[in-house]
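Inverse folding, one chain.
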């Protein structure tokens, strides 16, 4: 069976996508496991990608990973290089507003319009609702929840064109945009961020041969030691890949349950 690779979640610019393709090419050469890069571009639903039986190395959001049955195989997760991640495979949600807006804190946006991506998203929905639990009161925090906006780019567009006052942005996506699309990044400002949680991970389908899984994982875990990969990893803002356990992501299901119980008050 031919296996596919995909980094749509973090192929946020042409330069970032090209770097992911370079990374997967190195993984193929190092592991000896052939992979075909599958675009699966938006608006194609990510959940259609994640349920395929030929995943070799595909980024998957942590919340659907935690709740999937059968669960895909965890290969490894990136440890982003910016200092705020502390060298660990984690990320958060940045609440973004227009850089020229009057908002200076997240509380300033209460009563306005907040965007969201899709219900199965950790950074674009689950983390947002959980973060707001500490702010809840007798009245809804926002007059309108605008969505599904589906992708981080559409959240950014909605903020910039004034359809929403504030929107959630995967922090690693945000850092990649700062690196590769600084003009757009300069038009945004962060008013608050959630706590860190396990970052989306690369997975393989449950049916993939164990030896192939082991070789793919080993290639990912060692790519940072090859000098030839330094420029690629630098472009992707990755210090290295680390092993992660399925249980690391269980907290995301707990967050979803807690947010669901309080949904009427948000």
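Residues assigned per position:
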């Amino acid at each position: 069976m031919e296996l596919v690779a995909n980094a749509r979640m973090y192929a946020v610019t042409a330069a970032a996508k090209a770097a992911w393709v370079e990374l997967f090419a190195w993984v193929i050469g190092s592991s000896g496991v052939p992979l075909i890069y599958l675009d699966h571009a938006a608006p194609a639903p990510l959940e259609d990608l994640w349920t395929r039986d030929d995943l070799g190395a595909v980024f998957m959001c942590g919340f659907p990973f935690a709740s999937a049955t059968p669960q895909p195989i965890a290969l490894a997760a990136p440890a982003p290089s910016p200092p705020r991640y502390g060298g660990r495979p984690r990320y958060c949600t940045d609440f973004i507003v227009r850089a020229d807006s009057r908002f200076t804190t997240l509380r300033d946006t209460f009563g306005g319009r907040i965007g969201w991506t899709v219900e199965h998203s950790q950074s674009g929905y689950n983390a947002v609702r959980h973060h707001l639990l500490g702010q809840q009161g007798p009245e809804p925090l926002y007059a309108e929840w605008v969505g599904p906006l589906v992708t981080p780019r559409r959240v950014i567009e909605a903020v910039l064109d004034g359809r929403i006052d504030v929107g959630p942005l995967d922090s690693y996506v945000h850092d990649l945009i700062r690196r590769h699309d600084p003009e757009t990044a300069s038009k945004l400002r962060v008013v608050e961020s959630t706590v860190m949680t396990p970052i989306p991970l690369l997975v393989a389908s449950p049916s993939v041969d164990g030896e192939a899984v082991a070789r793919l994982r080993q290639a990912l875990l060692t790519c940072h030691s090859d000098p030839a990969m330094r420029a690629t990893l630098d472009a992707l803002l990755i210090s290295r890949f680390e092993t992660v356990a399925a249980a690391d992501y269980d907290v995301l299901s707990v967050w979803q349950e807690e947010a669901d119980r309080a949904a009427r008050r948000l």
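The radius of gyration is 18 Å. The chain has two domains: 3-88+198-253, 91-197.
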